[in-house]
């Protein structure tokens, strides 16, 4: 197992007893540069590859974080030569990279760009891939260190992993081999376990990096720092002070061209299972004993184990689909009218569930998780709502417009923290009203904080796994969500429609009203 | 727009700043430090632009201090409300005897409770910690290459180093150091000898050589080339040579044993980028302190000709006997 040490790149630390005299844990300026390696990407023609992954690779190179020996290999069906692929990468970099385009950096990357043409079932193509990697190990000095990024639909995972194993590309005798997979990790507990079986047949747990690109490492670390590097929040972070917690991820767009993927999956599987339950775990977990991979995971697993969706799903869950109508001044189609969606679809585009945590810290504090498409705005946040005062020494009129205090961890679009509290309105009248105190990461620090994918790719190349979920967390999340999904399926009905550009269906409002709360307007 | 105030006082400037914040509808919060730039008229433009660029990553209150000791006593101030700074941008011209009392002007204008950083883009005082502006600061940044005599400047830095001090000459070595460390990550072999090649009197080269000597425990030769700056570093190992050679402004060659030669990106970075790197850390650079102590140890008193130097006993870095 990879040690949790932060001092030296883990890949080197495991090799042998050599300590690099030029590395000094106190030397905070020296970036951790990944060792020589090849990043192999399956599914290079997708949007994600062009808009995020390729630019992230360039940005890393531009920041000097990629090693001199680095190669980037694309694998796809297209009939391309190396230079065609290089052109596609170049185009993607020029359009989407966050750092300025510099010819010398591009040239450095270019020398290691290769393309392998083939189908996933094509043995010869994988033999060619193996030959390409061997050649790169020789010419670029990439030392047998290979990361395989599966930016492909999950149904191809097993065939690709099988091929890699079959052609000796999972073998770690010479250099490390790592595989990166993205959510969804299955569509329920059973399929997640099945996927795990497929993955673990070819790769060990330490070689597998599960990526949730919504939840960048930066965000996770910000949350950890806020909770555990401050005195003033943690004492309030429990059922003595918190009445309930709302975790929201809203998108203002519809499903776009993703009908094929989305229908049958739906909002809960797409977002709640991974993203929202990860945010939940980070918000609700106990203080870890350190920031190492295993201790962080242990705390997340513990709180997930203590959590379950509240029974009586008819009262404590809500699901919906967007109807056609006006959204943001634009006439949009309803979900059932989108291309490729059958009229009889029961897939939801809005989902809300209530999660209860059975431990001393959180007993009696409901966590509400909601996500939806065609909401009024694109926003992700965790809002801790404080209990109302047992006694208010002002008369009712003075505090008529006063809500409860809340602490909001804003994650998107502008990462930051908002504290809402009551303040007296200036003037001779005694009137107390809610005000917001805002902190933005963006305006207080750095415009060049690394993009989520840059951190992800770098962590994979460094072999630094801390914040990637392991199969246990994935399975716990399914365990929480599965009963809700079963209930919804069992009703045999279509989800309730909601107008596009609104905060979801009526049942979602009712579900909170039953507990005496209302949804925050993010 | 610029709010211009002639013959003014710090209190009036602070008031004008507050009024402007009110008018703009912001409290001026979100700033992470006060950034004081101690400069002269000559280098004003470059320092101004670099401060502004660094401010993009670290929103701050920028106080540019221009010293004009020859003029009549007084203080002039400009608040640049139209600069694209994400905090406040002010130019404070101290005239005549005011130059002797910069603290009286600066103290009322520092952002409460947050760190104060002072940057001297060219000539810096010998001892930063006892300097009238330097003593207000938590972090003090100098640039030996901006000084008239870079070698002497870096010697001053070495003898008078205190926690919180750093020099852009050191910042200029970061990319080189990163590549050299990465090379050893790959080669994993002891280094038996090393050479740094650089232009004559190149302060970053001296620092880089001292760092290598300190870390590798071998003698490091510094040989002279036409520059600019550091042009190559070569290390000898039993597995073969490690060489990083800058062959053009945009082209650097990287050679390690048993591997094909590669080109890497290692361009000379503009001052704004260097300052930005410095502002990322407010804590002490202990590695720099070690390197400066190593330089002092190596050079000893005679080589540096320290006659006349006060030799400050309160300082952590002491010339060895």
Automatic annotation (TrEMBL), chain A:
Residues 224-520 form the Glucose-6-phosphate dehydrogenase C-terminal domain. Substrate binds at residues 213, 217, 251, 270, 373. SUPFAM superfamilies: Glyceraldehyde-3-phosphate dehydrogenase-like, C-terminal domain, NAD(P)-binding Rossmann-fold domains. Pathway: Carbohydrate degradation; pentose phosphate pathway; D-ribulose 5-phosphate from D-glucose 6-phosphate (oxidative stage): step 1/3. The keyword Isomerase does not apply. It comes from the Bacteria. It catalyses: D-glucose 6-phosphate + NADP(+) = 6-phospho-D-glucono-1,5-lactone + NADPH + H(+). GO terms for molecular function: glucose-6-phosphate dehydrogenase activity; NADP binding. Residues 1-30 are annotated as: Disordered. The active site is at residue 275. Keywords: Carbohydrate metabolism, Glucose metabolism, NADP, Oxidoreductase. Residues 1-17 have a biased composition (Low complexity). Pfam families: G6PD_C (PF02781), G6PD_N (PF00479). Its EC number is 1.1.1.49. NADP(+) binds at residues 77, 119-120, 183. GO terms for biological process: glucose metabolic process; pentose-phosphate shunt, oxidative branch. NCBIfam families: zwf. Belongs to the glucose-6-phosphate dehydrogenase family. Catalyzes the oxidation of glucose 6-phosphate to 6-phosphogluconolactone. This is Glucose-6-phosphate 1-dehydrogenase.
Automatic annotation (TrEMBL), chain B:
Residues 53-157 form the Glucose-6-phosphate dehydrogenase assembly protein OpcA N-terminal domain. Residues 163-292 form the Glucose-6-phosphate dehydrogenase assembly protein OpcA C-terminal domain. Coiled coil: none annotated. Pfam families: OpcA_G6PD_assem, OpcA_G6PD_C. InterPro entries: G6PDH_assembly_OpcA (IPR004555), OpcA_G6PD_C (IPR046802), OpcA_G6PD_N (IPR046801). This is Glucose-6-phosphate dehydrogenase assembly protein OpcA. It comes from Raineyella antarctica.
């Amino acid at each position: 197992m990879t040690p949790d040490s932060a001092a030296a790149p883990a890949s080197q630390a495991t090799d042998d007893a050599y300590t690099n005299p030029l590395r000094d844990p106190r030397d905070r300026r020296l970036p951790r540069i990944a060792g020589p390696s090849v990043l192999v990407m399956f599914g290079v023609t997708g949007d994600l590859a062009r808009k995020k992954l390729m630019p992230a690779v360039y940005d890393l190179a531009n920041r000097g974080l990629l090693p001199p020996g680095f190669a980037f290999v694309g694998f796809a069906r297209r009939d391309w030569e190396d230079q065609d692929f290089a052109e596609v990468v170049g185009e993607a970099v020029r359009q989407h990279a966050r750092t300025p385009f510099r010819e010398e950096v591009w040239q450095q990357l270019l020398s290691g760009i290769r393309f392998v043409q083939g189908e996933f079932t094509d043995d010869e193509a994988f033999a060619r891939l193996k030959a390409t990697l061997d050649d790169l190990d020789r010419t670029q000095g990439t030392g047998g260190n290979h990361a395989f990024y599966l930016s492909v639909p999950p149904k191809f995972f097993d065939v690709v992993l099988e091929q890699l194993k079959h052609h000796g590309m999972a073998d770690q005798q010479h250099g490390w081999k790592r595989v990166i997979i993205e959510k969804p990790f299955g569509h329920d507990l059973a399929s997640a376990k099945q996927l795990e079986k497929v993955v673990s047949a070819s790769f060990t747990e330490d070689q597998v990096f599960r990526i949730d690109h919504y939840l960048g490492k930066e965000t996770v670390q910000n949350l950890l720092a806020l909770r555990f590097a401050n005195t003033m929040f943690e004492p309030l972070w429990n059922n003595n002070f918190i009445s309930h917690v709302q975790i929201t991820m809203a998108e203002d767009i519809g499903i776009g061209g993703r009908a094929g993927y989305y229908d049958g999956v739906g909002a809960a599987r797409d977002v709640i299972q991974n993203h929202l339950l990860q945010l939940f775990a980070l918000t609700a977990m106990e203080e870890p004993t350190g920031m190492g991979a295993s201790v962080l995971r242990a705390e997340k697993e513990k709180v997930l184990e203590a959590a379950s969706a509240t029974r009586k799903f008819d009262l404590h869950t809500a699901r919906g689909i967007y109807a056609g109508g006006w959204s943001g001044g634009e006439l949009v189609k309803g979900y059932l009218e989108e291309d490729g969606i059958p009229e009889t679809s029961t897939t939801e585009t809005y989902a809300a569930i209530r999660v209860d945590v059975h431990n001393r810290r959180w007993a009696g504090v409901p966590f509400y998780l909601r996500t939806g498409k065609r909401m009024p705005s694109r926003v992700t946040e965790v809002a801790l709502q404080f209990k109302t005062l047992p006694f208010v020494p002002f008369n009712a009129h003075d505090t008529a417009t006063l809500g409860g205090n809340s602490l909001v961890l804003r994650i998107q679009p502008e990462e930051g923290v908002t504290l809402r509290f009551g303040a007296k309105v200036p003037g001779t009248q005694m009137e107390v009203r809610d005000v917001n105190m805002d902190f933005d990461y963006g305006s207080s620090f750095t415009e060049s904080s690394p993009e989520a994918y840059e951190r992800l790719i770098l962590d994979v190349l460094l072999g630094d796994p801390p914040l990637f979920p392991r199969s246990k967390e994935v399975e716990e999340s399914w365990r929480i969500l599965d009963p809700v999904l079963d209930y919804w399926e069992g009703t045999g009905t279509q989800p309730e429609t909601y107008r596009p550009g609104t905060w979801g269906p009526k049942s979602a409002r009712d579900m909170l009203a039953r507990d005496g709360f209302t949804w925050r307007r993010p | 727009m610029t709010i211009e105030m002639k013959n003014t006082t710090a209190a009036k400037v602070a008031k004008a700043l507050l009024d402007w914040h009110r008018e703009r509808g912001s409290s001026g919060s979100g700033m992470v430090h006060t950034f004081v730039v101690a400069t002269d008229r000559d280098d004003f433009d470059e320092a101004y632009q670099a401060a502004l660029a660094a401010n993009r990553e670290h929103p701050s209150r920028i106080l540019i201090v221009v010293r004009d000791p020859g003029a009549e006593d007084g203080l002039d101030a400009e608040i640049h409300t139209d600069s694209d700074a994400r905090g406040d941008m002010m130019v404070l011209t101290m005239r005549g005897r005011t130059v002797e009392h910069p603290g009286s002007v600066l103290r009322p204008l520092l952002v409460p409770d947050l760190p104060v950083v002072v940057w001297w883009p060219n000539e810096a005082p010998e001892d930063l910690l006892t300097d009238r502006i330097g003593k207000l600061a938590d972090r003090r940044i100098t640039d030996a290459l901006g000084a008239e005599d870079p070698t002497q400047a870096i010697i001053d830095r070495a003898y008078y180093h205190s926690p919180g001090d750093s020099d852009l000459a050191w910042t200029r070595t970061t990319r080189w150091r990163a590549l050299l460390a990465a090379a050893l990550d790959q080669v994993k072999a002891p280094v038996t000898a090393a050479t740094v090649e650089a232009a004559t009197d190149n302060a970053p080269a001296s620092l880089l050589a001292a760092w290598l000597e300190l870390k590798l425990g071998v003698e490091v030769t510094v040989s002279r080339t036409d520059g600019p700056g550091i042009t190559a570093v070569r290390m000898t190992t039993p597995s073969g040579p490690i060489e990083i050679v800058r062959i053009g402004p945009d082209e650097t060659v990287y050679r390690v044993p048993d591997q094909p030669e590669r080109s890497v990106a290692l361009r000379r970075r503009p001052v704004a980028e260097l300052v930005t790197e410095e502002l990322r850390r407010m804590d002490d650079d202990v590695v720099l302190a070690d390197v400066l102590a190593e330089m002092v140890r190596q050079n000893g008193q005679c080589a540096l000709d320290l006659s006349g130097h006060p030799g400050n006993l309160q300082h952590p870095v002491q010339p060895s006997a």
